[in-house]
Specification:
single chain, about 170 residues, mainly beta, Immunoglobulin-like, 7-stranded mixed sheet
Length: about 170
């Protein structure tokens, strides 16, 4: 049985409407893993270009090995879709480094606590620095977690984690 053309168009219209509604919501969700460094991240609400480990020379790391008495960072790049308040955005960023027993070595509940807000372009790249030093010791592995959230738009968040092997 052949469906007349007007009826076929009527059946297709709700599908097209649904797709347009979903794409207009500015909703973003995803996960990604860097198999070279072991860094994985997931995001919900935010749009994110990438999250990566940065070495002491300020370059992208190609593994998860770090030298004692150096500084590295986890950087989230291209963060967008913040909620705004008076034209500003208000990110939060938690950074946690634990030893193999789960004991915190470094813990910052919010690197932006008390912050007065930023222009959206200023908050598109967030970075948490980690100094590889005592009480860390060579030969041990440490777990790093980063949680970024939007203080204006509930539900916008990014979570990243990896292991660091200290040499």
């Amino acid at each position: 049985m052949k469906i007349p053309k007007p009826a076929w168009m009527i059946l297709l219209a709700p599908l097209i409407s649904g797709v347009l509604i979903l794409t207009a919501c500015n909703f973003s969700k995803g996960t990604k893993k860097d198999f070279l460094t072991g860094l994985s991240f997931s995001y919900n609400g935010f749009r994110v270009r990438d999250v990566l480990l940065i070495d002491p020379a300020n370059k992208r790391m190609t593994d998860n090995k770090v030298q004692i008495n150096t500084r590295i960072a986890i950087a989230a790049l291209g963060i967008d879709n913040y909620g705004r308040q008076d034209g500003k955005v208000f990110p939060g960023m938690m950074l946690l480094v634990t030893n193999k027993k789960g004991t915190p070595i470094l813990k910052a509940d919010d690197l932006f606590a008390g912050d007065q807000g930023h222009l959206p372009a200023e908050a598109s790249e967030l970075r948490g620095d980690i100094t590889i030093a005592k009480p860390m010791v060579a030969g041990e592995t440490y777990h790093v977690k980063v949680h970024i959230w939007d203080k204006v738009k509930a539900g916008n968040e990014l979570n990243a984690e990896t292991d660091l092997v200290v040499q």
